[in-house]
Amino acid sequence: AKKHGLGFIPQLNTAHWYYTGRYDVYSQTDEQFNALAKATEWFAKEYGDYFAAYEILNEPTIRSFNRYFDTWAGPELCMKNVNVVAEALKKGDPDKFVWGVCMCELMMERAQTYFKAMVETGEFDKYIDGLSLHPYALDVPEIYRIYDWYIKPYYIDVLEENGIHDMPIFFSEVGYPNTF
């Protein structure tokens, strides 16, 4: 891949399987956070040369990925997990760009509310360098209007209202079915 100028971006989850026993929950205890940080830093040191950047989390308001997003695994805990992973990546591979949170369901209120609460923690840009989004046609049928209708009012404005200006945005997953 490197020979042909391709760069891979791994998407890292924030749960530590060994300590939580599952992949769909966030780390919660100091022991879990320390293990997560240690494993992530090792990963970045060991494999960082293979990657162009990193991406953290995956669609935190999709119930099959975070079945507790609307109860105990809310935005504050999510942000804590994201920052533990991002800080460890920066220690293990300090020159790489770190994308964060991979929001999808861009026009749904639960995603917008969750995102806003994550940004309002004041920790959103502590370690991540850019916002990754996953726009899909089923979320945004008028995909050509995605910036004006969804990205600007629900994501960029929230960042700017919280003092985060000019954060890069990356569409790391995009889906548009051929049935339209």
Could you give a short description of this structure?
37% of the residues lie in helices and 11% in strands.
Report on the architecture of this protein.
- The protein is an alpha/beta fold and 180 residues long.
- Helices cover 37% and strands 11% of the residues.
- It has 5 helices and 5 strands.
- It has helices at residues 17-20, 30-47, 75-92, 109-119, 146-161, and strands at 11-12, 53-56, 97-103, 130-133, 169-171.
- A 5-stranded parallel sheet has the order 1-2-3-4-5, covered by helices on one side.
- β2, α3 (75-92) and β3 (97-103) form a beta-alpha-beta unit.
- α2 packs parallel to α3, α3 packs across α4 (109-119) and α4 packs parallel to α5.
- It is globular and about 40 Å long.
- The N and C termini lie far apart (33 Å).
What strand order characterises the main sheet? 1-2-3-4-5
Number of strands: 5
Give the integer mean of the pLDDT values. Answer: 83
Helix content: 25-40%
The termini sit apart by 33 Å
Structural class label: alpha/beta
Shape: globular
Low-pLDDT stretches: none
What's the number of helices? 5
Order of helices and strands: EHHEHEHEHE
Biggest β-sheet strands, sense, barrel: 5 strands, parallel
User: Taking Cα atoms only, what radius of gyration do you get, to the nearest Å?
Assistant: 16 Å
Proportion in β-strands: 5-15%
